[in-house]
């Protein structure tokens, strides 16, 4: 039979593509056929899932998700039950411990506390506490029963059942999953074979058609292709049937899988109901265990109430009052001032129960007054209690709280009122103290006080403005500005206030005024009718603070003048052995503040008929010497430490120069000092006198007896009792009756002025003493003969130990007229030049 030819192509195809194109077409068709088969299978599976959902109400995919959720729920419930088990064991432990502590507390209450039998509430309290023991026994018994019956039996069984349920679920799930997996795997394998056979069928059919339509192919080839096609088709039909059977088998297994899960879910629901009921029973038993309103607990509580009912508070208080009727009455204890505090402090300006109102405390007292006034303004004290609150006491359930609130308010009002009265009393005390001190309320210390007049005691000697024994003219020198004042002792041993104020007839000028401080009836005052105080310090403080006038012209105290630091308290000097004697008095070795010193003491007048003017002059010169020494500072001038002028006798305190006066040192020397040592003595004196010359001071009594030798054989000029400080161009004419004739210069006997060159003459005589072992100058001549001897031009002879250089220097000191004598500065230069020459000679000889 002739086969029909395929229609010609609409376009020209290359020769190479004519062979390849039919094969590609067959392959594409096979792929399309395979995709269609897969889509059909997916539609069948979807239809099966839809049918299953309609029949069972549960989709297969939902069932597959639900099973793991059940497993997870079992796991969570198991963990919760384990935690509940721990919690219940902990609760049993706590309850048991609580019961044990309650028993111990009850035993302590019963054995350790002494319960007074006389008090009804005490006995009732004991009986009530004893009920705690019964309560503790009941708690212990309930805890033991709950632990055994509920935790160890019921809860443990529930946990085991939960574990068994989970185990069974896991096993069933694995079995069902295995059956389903085997069916799915068989279906997938058959489907894969079906696909391969379908592809083979498509290829065989395509090949058969190609051979059958090709006229060049033989009949034998066509028959072989046809046989091959029938063989492949047979295999396709076989695998087709096998695939359909596998589909039926898989759907059957899937249906059985769903039915098994549904049955298992029903089983799980019933099992959960049983286990939940067991869990509920455990919780009910737990609630019953923790119920404190059960009969056995209620019985104990009722018995406790029965113990408290017979108590009558009123009778209890009456019984308390009866048993304590012998107590002492309460009285306020009055505290007394502890006077040992003042004794310990060692001060005399504070008094028992008296406010100290002075410069140290004025500002503080004013601050206290200000604070008291502020408190009175800010403190609003109610005068009546809230009457509405009183009416609430009877109607209020919490009558104790209302009663307490009213009592607290009453106490507060009474306390505030009493405190207000007390504060007014304190304010009155402070105001009186300020008024008595001269200060006023609110007064501030101004800047008129140049230093704080603080003293350790109320003694006048301890006050900074007390200058001790001081002549009137010296006191006037210390006052510099208007209102300056100081307190001193005059020549009549009277206490005097020295003050600088403007002149009455010339307000542009100032003058010093002096007020004798009156002492009458153990009180001090400046003027009659003025303020009187028990001490000079308090009197001064009063006038400083009050600014009250001493006279009608406005005279008042403004600025205290502090005494110099070199004024020493007489009581600080401890006198020892005597060192020397003179017209002024004596010199003793003493101790001052743990330091060895030399003290020059002005003698007290032994002759009561001695003229007062002479006594005043001696005292003035003595003080003048101290003031002069206080200004000097040189290694060859004896060092001044201070003057004790608080009271008689007046004493000048100087450094202790160990080897004493130069004349005694020379006389006592067994083996006389060397010529060089003697020359050094002369040079030391010259340097000291050159310093005085520079300070424009004339000594007027230079001699070996008035020079001192220290432990290092250095000589220091001392004894300035006759010294005088000259101003520029001033000449001094001596009026002394007792003069050191043998040391005085020739011009002084002719009543010429005393100058530094007069001291140079005395220095020449002192050098002569040094090289003569302190022999008396002009020995063998009376004083009047010495004057004649000197005025004739005669001079002391050269001592044997004296070199020509030294004697030449002596004679230059005795030259006339006075301007031919060297100054002390020139003498020091001569010694320096001579020393350098000797040093050069020694260097050449060596």
From TrEMBL:
<comment type="similarity">
    <text>Belongs to the protein kinase superfamily. Tyr protein kinase family.</text>
</comment>
<feature type="domain" description="SH2">
    <location>
        <begin position="465"/>
        <end position="561"/>
    </location>
</feature>
<keyword id="KW-0067">ATP-binding</keyword>
<dbReference type="GO" id="GO:0071944">
    <property type="term" value="C:cell periphery"/>
</dbReference>
<dbReference type="Pfam" id="PF00017">
    <property type="entry name" value="SH2"/>
</dbReference>
<dbReference type="Pfam" id="PF07714">
    <property type="entry name" value="PK_Tyr_Ser-Thr"/>
</dbReference>
<dbReference type="InterPro" id="IPR036860">
    <property type="entry name" value="SH2_dom_sf"/>
</dbReference>
<keyword id="KW-0812">Transmembrane</keyword>
<keyword id="KW-0472">Membrane</keyword>
<dbReference type="InterPro" id="IPR027267">
    <property type="entry name" value="AH/BAR_dom_sf"/>
</dbReference>
<feature type="transmembrane region" description="Helical">
    <location>
        <begin position="20"/>
        <end position="46"/>
    </location>
</feature>
<keyword id="KW-0175">Coiled coil</keyword>
<keyword id="KW-0418">Kinase</keyword>
<dbReference type="InterPro" id="IPR001245">
    <property type="entry name" value="Ser-Thr/Tyr_kinase_cat_dom"/>
</dbReference>
<dbReference type="InterPro" id="IPR000719">
    <property type="entry name" value="Prot_kinase_dom"/>
</dbReference>
<keyword id="KW-0829">Tyrosine-protein kinase</keyword>
<feature type="binding site">
    <location>
        <position position="600"/>
    </location>
    <ligand>
        <name>ATP</name>
    </ligand>
</feature>
<feature type="domain" description="Protein kinase">
    <location>
        <begin position="573"/>
        <end position="838"/>
    </location>
</feature>
<dbReference type="InterPro" id="IPR035849">
    <property type="entry name" value="Fes/Fps/Fer_SH2"/>
</dbReference>
<feature type="transmembrane region" description="Helical">
    <location>
        <begin position="58"/>
        <end position="76"/>
    </location>
</feature>
<dbReference type="InterPro" id="IPR011009">
    <property type="entry name" value="Kinase-like_dom_sf"/>
</dbReference>
<dbReference type="InterPro" id="IPR017441">
    <property type="entry name" value="Protein_kinase_ATP_BS"/>
</dbReference>
<dbReference type="InterPro" id="IPR000980">
    <property type="entry name" value="SH2"/>
</dbReference>
<keyword id="KW-1133">Transmembrane helix</keyword>
<protein>
    <recommendedName>
        <fullName>Tyrosine-protein kinase</fullName>
        <ecNumber>2.7.10.2</ecNumber>
    </recommendedName>
</protein>
<dbReference type="InterPro" id="IPR008266">
    <property type="entry name" value="Tyr_kinase_AS"/>
</dbReference>
<feature type="coiled-coil region">
    <location>
        <begin position="166"/>
        <end position="193"/>
    </location>
</feature>
<keyword id="KW-0727">SH2 domain</keyword>
<dbReference type="InterPro" id="IPR020635">
    <property type="entry name" value="Tyr_kinase_cat_dom"/>
</dbReference>
<keyword id="KW-0547">Nucleotide-binding</keyword>
<dbReference type="GO" id="GO:0005524">
    <property type="term" value="F:ATP binding"/>
</dbReference>
<dbReference type="GO" id="GO:0007165">
    <property type="term" value="P:signal transduction"/>
</dbReference>
<dbReference type="InterPro" id="IPR050198">
    <property type="entry name" value="Non-receptor_tyrosine_kinases"/>
</dbReference>
<dbReference type="GO" id="GO:0004715">
    <property type="term" value="F:non-membrane spanning protein tyrosine kinase activity"/>
</dbReference>
<keyword id="KW-0597">Phosphoprotein</keyword>
<keyword id="KW-0808">Transferase</keyword>
């Amino acid at each position: 039979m002739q086969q029909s030819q395929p229609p010609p192509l609409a376009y020209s195809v290359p020769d190479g593509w004519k062979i390849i194109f039919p094969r590609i077409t067959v392959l594409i068709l096979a792929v399309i056929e395979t995709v269609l088969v897969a889509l059909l299978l997916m539609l069948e599976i979807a239809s099966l899932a839809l049918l299953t959902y309609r029949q069972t109400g549960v989709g297969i995919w939902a069932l597959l998700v639900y099973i793991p959720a059940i497993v997870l729920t079992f796991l969570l419930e198991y963990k919760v039950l384990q935690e509940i088990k721990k919690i219940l064991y902990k609760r049993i432990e706590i309850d048991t411990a609580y019961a044990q502590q309650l028993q111990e507390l009850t035993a302590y209450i019963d054995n350790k506390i002494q319960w007074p039998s006389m008090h009804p509430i005490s006995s009732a309290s004991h009986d009530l506490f004893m009920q705690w023991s019964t309560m503790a026994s009941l708690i212990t018994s309930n805890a033991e029963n709950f632990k055994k019956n509920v935790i160890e039996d019921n809860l443990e069984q529930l946990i085991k059942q939960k574990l068994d349920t989970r185990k069974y679920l896991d096993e069933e799930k694995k079995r069902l999953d295995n059956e389903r997996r085997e069916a799915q795997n068989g279906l997938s394998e058959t489907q894969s074979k079906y696909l391969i056979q379908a592809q083979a069928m498509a290829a065989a059919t395509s090949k058969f058609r190609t051979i059958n339509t090709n006229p060049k192919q033989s009949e034998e080839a066509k028959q072989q292709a046809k046989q091959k096609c029938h063989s492949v088709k047979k295999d396709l039909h076989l695998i087709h049937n096998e695939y359909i059977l596998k589909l039926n088998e898989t759907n059957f297994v899937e249906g059985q899988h769903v039915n098994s899960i549904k049955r298992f879910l029903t089983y799980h629901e019933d099992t959960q109901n049983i286990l939940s009921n067991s869990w509920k029973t455990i919780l009910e038993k737990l609630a019953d265990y923790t119920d404190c309103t059960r009969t056995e607990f209620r019985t104990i509580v009722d018995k406790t109430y029965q113990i408290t009912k017979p108590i009558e508070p009123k009778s209890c208080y009456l019984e308390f009052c009866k048993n304590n009727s012998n107590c002492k009455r309460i009285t306020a204890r009055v505290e007394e001032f502890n006077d040992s505090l003042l004794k310990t402090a060692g001060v005399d300006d504070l008094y028992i129960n008296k406010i100290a109102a002075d410069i140290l405390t004025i500002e503080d007292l004013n601050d206290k007054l200000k604070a008291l006034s502020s408190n009175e303004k800010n403190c609003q004290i109610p005068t009546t209690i809230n009457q509405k609150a009183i009416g609430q006491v009877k109607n209020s359930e919490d009558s104790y709280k209302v009663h307490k609130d009213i009592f607290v308010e009453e106490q507060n009002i009474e306390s505030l009122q009493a405190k207000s009265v007390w504060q007014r009393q304190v304010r009155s005390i402070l105001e009186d103290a300020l008024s008595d001190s001269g200060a006023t309320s609110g007064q501030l210390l101004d800047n008129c006080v140049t230093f704080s007049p603080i003293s350790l005691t109320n003694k006048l000697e301890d006050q900074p403005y007390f200058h001790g024994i001081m002549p009137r003219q010296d006191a006037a020198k210390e006052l510099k500005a208007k209102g300056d004042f100081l307190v001193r002792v005059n020549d009549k041993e009277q206490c005097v206030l020295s003050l600088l104020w403007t002149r009455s007839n010339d307000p542009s000028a100032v003058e010093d005024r002096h007020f004798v401080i009156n002492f009458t009836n153990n009180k001090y005052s400046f003027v009659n009718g003025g303020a009187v105080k028990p001490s000079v310090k308090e009197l001064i403080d009063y006038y400083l603070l009050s600014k009250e006038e001493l006279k009608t012209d406005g005279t008042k105290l403004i600025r205290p003048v502090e005494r110099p630091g070199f004024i020493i308290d007489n009581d600080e000097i401890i006198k020892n052995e005597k060192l020397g004697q003179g017209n002024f008095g004596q010199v003793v070795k003493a101790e001052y503040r743990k330091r060895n010193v030399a003290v020059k003491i002005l003698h007290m007048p032994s002759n009561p008929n001695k003229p007062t003017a002479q006594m005043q002059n001696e005292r003035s010169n003595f003080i003048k010497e101290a003031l002069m020494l206080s200004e000097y500072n040189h290694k060859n001038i004896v060092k001044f430490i201070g003057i004790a002028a608080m009271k008689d006798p007046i004493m000048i305190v100087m450094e202790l120069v160990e080897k004493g006066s130069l004349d005694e040192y020379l006389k006592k020397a067994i083996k006389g000092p060397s010529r060089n040592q003697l020359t050094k003595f002369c040079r030391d004196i010259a340097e000291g006198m050159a310093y005085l010359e520079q300070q424009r001071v004339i000594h007027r009594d230079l001699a070996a007896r008035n020079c001192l030798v220290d432990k290092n054989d250095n000589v220091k000029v001392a004894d300035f009792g006759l010294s005088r400080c000259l101003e520029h161009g001033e000449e001094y004419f001596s009026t002394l009756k007792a003069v050191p004739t043998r040391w005085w210069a020739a011009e002084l006997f002719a009543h010429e002025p005393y100058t530094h060159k007069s001291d140079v003459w005395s220095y020449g005589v002192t050098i002569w003493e040094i090289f003569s072992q302190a022999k008396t100058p002009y020995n063998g001549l009376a004083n009047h003969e010495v004057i004649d001897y000197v005025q004739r031009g005669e001079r002391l002879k050269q001592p044997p130990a004296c070199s020509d250089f030294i004697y030449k220097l002596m004679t230059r000191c005795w030259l006339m007229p006075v301007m031919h004598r060297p100054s002390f500065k020139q003498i020091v230069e001569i010694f320096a030049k001579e020393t350098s020459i000797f040093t050069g000679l020694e260097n050449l000889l060596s």
